[in-house]
């Protein structure tokens, strides 16, 4: 499987004594090695409420990615392309850098270009708080991309990276679908299955599916069901997306280490095999392959 979103870097940044060996992480070295996840996307997420400089914190997380995840382990490879991922050996894991929230660049495209040059392959335009790029799914939901936001998308296009619409306002998603060469959703569920601000409408899902753009079903329980969420509840989102035409788009973005609650029997990365089993119970193996692997990377180098 490929997991398109986690917040391990935030955990490592918040506590400088923590290492990737710490098994209180949802995704630690040992847990990852025991899991069926071959490629893990590591998001740079800087909490907007911090007092320190956003961009310095962003660079610190890039440094942590290399010092604590890539460099200590010969079997973890920094991947930046489909070719890199396909070159992984059976015992190797791939790690990719992404960004969650353009508040870290302010109104400075130099900062964005710097991150893209440092290997960030997907850029989430917003978190939950409004920034210079757009409104969000919970603040100024009718605000689409600003003029600066449109320049941000154009810059991401130039670097052949994905524009991630998780957390974005519906109006912003409309704009991205018009402007982005590679739109994606890293970690959101279907709003018509469970109505939550962070989930995506059927109308928008169908537009992503028409582009065969990746849409990451997320393991966040409170985006999945109002009560105690189960893997069957998660599968309801997968089934709905599949029925909408998402066969060539459905992927997964766990949000592990970004949540305090988890879905039953899906408590950390070692439990991902339960998701794969549930998929195999419902779908042909070719479709399981698409959803767990191919849909996430098909457009990576196109």
UniProtKB/TrEMBL annotation:
Transmembrane spans: none
Keyword Disulfide bond: no
InterPro entries: Metal_Hydrolase, Pept_M19
A GO molecular-function annotation: dipeptidase activity
Pfam families cross-referenced by the UniProt entry: Peptidase_M19
Hydrolase found in the keyword field: yes
SUPFAM superfamilies per the UniProt record, alphabetical: Metallo-dependent hydrolases
Domain of life (superkingdom): Bacteria
Keyword terms of this UniProt record: Dipeptidase, Hydrolase, Protease
Enzyme Commission designation: 3.4.13.19
Protein name according to UniProt: Membrane dipeptidase
